[in-house]
Every structure is written in C-alpha cells, then in structure tokens.
Amino acid sequence: MHHASPNLRRRLLAALGLLAAGHADATGDDKAAWAALRGGAIVLFRHAHAPGVGDPPNFSLGDCRTQRNLDATGQTQARRIGERLKSEGVAVSALWSSQWCRARDTAALFALGPVREVAAFNSFFSSQGDEAAQTAAARKLLLGWRERGTLVVVTHQVNIRSLTGQSTSSAEGVVLRRNGDTLQVVGHVRP
Predict the structure, then answer these.
(1) Given 3.40.640.10, 3.40.50.2300, 3.40.50.150, 3.40.50.1240, which CATH number is that of 26-189?
(2) What is the pLDDT of residues 132-177, one digit of tens each?
(3) Helix, strand, coil % over all residues of the chain, rounded to 5
(4) Are 156 and 46 in contact (CB under 8 A)?
(5) In whole angstroms, what is the distance from residue 149 CA to residue 38 CA?
(6) Measured in Å, how far apart are the chain's first and last C-alpha atoms?
(7) Is residue 121 classed exposed, middle or buried when 0-12, 13-18 and 19+ CB atoms within 10 A define those classes?
(8) Angle, vertex CA 13, rays to CA 8 and CA 30, nearest 5
(9) What are 70-116's pLDDT values in tens digits?
(10) Phi, then psi, of 111 in degrees rounded to 5
C-alpha cells in the first residue's frame, strides 16, 4: 500500500474502518432488531434450511414433491425461531409466506398463527418470476401494512436481497421499520 496515492490510501483505510465498525456492531444490531420486533416491526425471514439450490426442472408450485423442501435441520431451525419469537415477547399480528413449500412449512413450524400465502414473496430465482414486479408489489404491501404488532414474512434470499440489499443465510431474518416511503434495515435475527 506504500505505492498507493494518498487519496486511495485514505479511501482504503476508510473502507476498512467501515468494515470493522460493521463487524463490531453486529451484536448491537441484534439487540436493536429484537427491540424493534417487540415494538411492532417487520421481519423478512429466509426459509429454513432446504438442501440444494433452486428447484428441480420438474418444479410445480402445487406439488411439494417437485420442490426443495426443509430437511430435519430446517424443521428444527423453524421451530426454534418460533420459540425464540415467543420467548422474546414478540407479538405477531400477521404471518405471511411465499407459496413455495419450504417457505410455507417454515412459517407453519414457527407456530405463531395462521399463515397467509402471498405471491409477491414467491421466489424469482432463475427467472421463475418477475423480479421487478414482485419486488414492487412486496414493497407496496410492506409499506402499506399498518396493523399493531409484528409482521413476520417468510420468503427467499433473492427476494430479501432485492427488497433490502441484504444477504441472508437459511432461517435468518432482516428486521425492517417503515421510514416514510422507504424500508429501513434495523438489524438481523440469526438462527
């Protein structure tokens, strides 16, 4: 780095400082995320562990046998998330899910109430849907949601990234607050 220009050196050091600060704040983000959830925020969960990537070529929305599904690890993750939400005192007023079996099953295993399937949260991985239209519809639903309590949505990694710019692992949630006509990321809830 001794050959880099002073301006480049400053930018690199600033970027490293931001990365270090982001890493140091991970625990703080979790605390803020849980506080927001107890106060009635929105959380977008990626479905729990379902081995593989994408769906088989014979995929059919109405037939779980043609889809990637939760394995035992995923089922355990989903149950634990539901238990944790309850033990943290999160009052869930609505539970929405993608129509994909692995998302619906994750939501059902949360055991937080009835699951409402919402097509706007269906996966669009590998061009299975319309990313722009679904993201716009999902954003409109999230911004228009006004009930008391917390909204829990189970969806897919590609949907969460498109809505928030955040990556998630299986069963990880991104907690959001409405800020005018935008969705502000508060933090993450990790499995």
Answers:
(1) 3.40.50.1240
(2) 899 999 999 999 999 999 999 999 999 999 999 999 999 999 999 9
(3) 45, 20, 35
(4) yes
(5) 8
(6) 39
(7) buried
(8) 135
(9) 999 999 999 999 999 999 999 999 999 999 999 999 999 999 999 99
(10) 55, 50
